[in-house]
Each structure stands twice: as structure tokens, then as C-alpha cells.
Amino acid sequence: xxxxxxxxxxxxxxxxxxxxxxxxxxxxxxxxxxxxxxxxxxxxxxxxxxxxxxxxxxxxxxxxxxxxxxxxxxxxxxxxxxxxxxxxxxxxxxxxxxxxxxxxxxxxxxxxxxxxxxxxxxxxxxxxxxxxxxxxxxxxxxxxxxxxxxxxxxxxxxxxxxxxxxxxxxxxxxxxxxxxxxxxxxxxxxxxxxxxxxxxxxxxxxxxxxxxxxxxxxxxxxxxxxxxxxxxxxxxxxxxxxxxxxxxxxxxxxxxxxxxxxxxxxxxxxxxxxxxxxxxxxxxxxxxxxxxxxxxxxxxxxxxxxxxxxxxxxxxxxxxxxxxxxxxxxxxxxxxxxxxxxxxxxxxxxxxxxxxxxxxxxxxxxxxxxxxxxxxxxxxxxxxxxxxxxxxxxxxxxxxxxxxxxxxxxxxxxxxxxxxxxxxxxxxxxxxxxxxxxxxxxxxxxxxxxxxxxxxxxxxxxxxxxxxxxxxxxxxxxxxx
Length: 481
What we know:
- The protein is of the alpha+beta class.
- The chain has 10 helices and 12 strands.
- α5 (165-233) runs antiparallel to α10 (443-478), α7 packs across α9 and α8 (309-330) packs antiparallel against α9.
- The two termini are 64 Å apart.
């Protein structure tokens, strides 16, 4: 027999729930009115009905950070993305460096120093001939000596590659392919950061909801403790009920501390991904309803085949391996250049001071003992490896897109089921509340229906978070930025 009713009053000034017991509750006939089971149900409905004024004030203090703003900021400012962009820009200079090899090459060298020993030249008698009326030249053995002294030796060279132009062209193209691969690495890094930001954002939203609930639970339990202490003084509750409230309050305070620490860490992590000061305050948007995207598995796989940088990188590596093999074969071609040479020698007797030569310079190694052949075979194997890598990459991405697509569809079905369940529980709570006002239902029925409504609301929020996380993983698998 229920001899009293427990009323819930929300005071707008203090933003707390006050539990008021009517005077008739002090009259106990045969047994204690408030049991542990009733106390737990009262705490449950109090948590669900408490307003969240302090959280709204905190939200107004911090600037709003939308998901699109977070992704855009991270892509533009993230340090790893910037490093990948700089690496791609370095290839522009490598290509320019390779192109300079097509142009003439100039070399100039000067050697100045002391002769280590003297230069001695001996011209025998008549070495230059014997002439009538003159006689032999020289008329006797003549020795010309250049002592050990300071001298200079100057050399200059001009070479215009001719046959090397083919190999230089292959090298330029291979370097350009390297630049294209670096650009794909930039795209991959941007997609990676985008996926990490989305995942961190969704986790932050879920954690924020948990912190809000934990904070309000502590506030409500503190008020419940105060009211329970008054009822204990009036001997309307058991000592066990008071201790149970104290234990739940301590546990709720611990849970709140853990949740707030996790939230702070996630705030810092998201700021770090956006390359901002980790202490920068911000607030996040709650998760929206289900996305209306009508995407088929075939369309998702086609988009992944076109946009995933891993596939494009594998294709470029296969082309690069082919150019490397052609470069290895080009080593059989002799090097032919248009060449000019100059030599100058100062302070040395007899030898000419200036010598200039122009012509063609041919360099060739006819016998290499199989070195070039082995290099060609090695590069051929590399081409086969690149082809296998391309096929394996395409297969892995096809499987990855399929798995993420099915996971997204499962999350959509779960979201629909939890939404329906929450709507049903909320309607049941509304009907029970009306019956209770008309004294057609007990408080136990009201509290139980409210607890079910709160539980289904939590399940719906979890399903909503899982849905958007699954969609983010699918977009990552498709190569969306």
C-alpha cells in the first residue's frame, strides 16, 4: 500500500532538482516507505529531468567549431601535410636539374705550384736536320733545362652531349614520374588527416555528451544526498539508503573526472591535428540526423578506383620501373659529344704555352663482363614487381570499400531501429505521465517508463555516432578529402 507520494520540483534559480516529501509521508504504517529500489528510480528520473544551464553557459563562451571548419583548418595547416607539399615541390627543382644536362657543360681548372723536379730536354746534333751552307741543327748536342720553380697549368673543356640526349630524356621523364608520385603522397596525407579529424570530431561529440551526463548526475546525486540526509533525520529512510547514495555520488564523481580528462585529451588532440595551440578552446556541434546519401557499392568502388592515391601511386611506380629498365638498356649506347679542349702551361721552357683542340669525343666501354646485362634483368624484375603491386593494391582497396560500405549500411539499419525504439519509449513515457496525473498509474510505472526512455535515448545517440563514424570510414576508403 502506497501511503505517500514523492514530488519532483525543478527550481530554476539553482538549476537543481529538489525532492520534496509531503507531511503525510512521515506516517509509516507497518514498514518503511522508501526502499532502495524506489531510490534508484527516483535518481534516474531526476537525472533525466535536470536542466543543463551551466553547460549552455560554457558553450556560449567557446567558439563553435564545425566539422567542415575542422577539416579545412587541418588540411591547410597540418604540419605533416605541409611537409608532404614541400617534398613534392622539391621534385620541381630535381626536374629542372635533370634538364640542365641537355645543355653544354663547361669545366675550368687551374693548378699552380712548385715543380717537384726540373724539366731537362736534350736535343742531339742534327735532330732538326742538316742543311747546305748551314750544317746540322743543332750543331752539337744541346741540353735545355727548366729548374724546379713555380708554374701554372690551366685546362678548359666544353662538351655538348649528343648521343646522351636519349638517356637524359629518359632520366627527366623518370624524375617527373617521381614528382607525380610525391603529389599523390600529398593527396594521401590530406585524406589521412581528413579521416583522422572526422574520427576525432565524432569521438569528441560522443565524449562531450558523456561528460554532460556525468556532470548532471553528480549535481543530482549531491541534491539527493542532501534530501536523503533530511529524511534520515526524520527517520523516513534507512541508513543503507543513505550509504548507497554516498557510494553512488563518489562513483559518479570519479566517472566525471575520468570523462573530463578524456575530453581534455581529445580537445588537445584535435587542436594538434589542426596545427593550433593545444589549449585553444572550442565547442562542437551535436551530430545531425542520418545522411540522405544514395550510394551503391559499385559507385563507391568506381570512385575509389579513380580517387584513391594508392592506386595512382602504384600505376606511376609501374611506369617509373619501365623507364628505369629503358635507362639500363641505354647504357649500351656509346657517349658521343661535341668537344673542345684547351691546355695552358706557363713558365716551362720548350713546351707550348697554349694548346686548343676541337672535335668529337667518343666514350664507350665495349666489355663490361655482363654488368649491363645484369642491370637490365634486374630492372625487368622490378617492372614485374610493380605490376603485381598494382594488382594487389586494386584488390585490397576493392575489399576495403566493400567492408566499409556494408558496415555503413548495418549502422544505418541500427540507427533506424534505435530511433524507432526511442520514439516508442518516449510515447510510452508520455502516456504514463498523463495516466499518473489522473492517478491512473503508480509512480513506479512512471519511473520505469522514464528509465526506458532515457536508455533508448542513449542507445540512439550511440547508434548515431556509429553511423557517422562508419560513413567517415567509407569516405576514407573511397578516397574523399
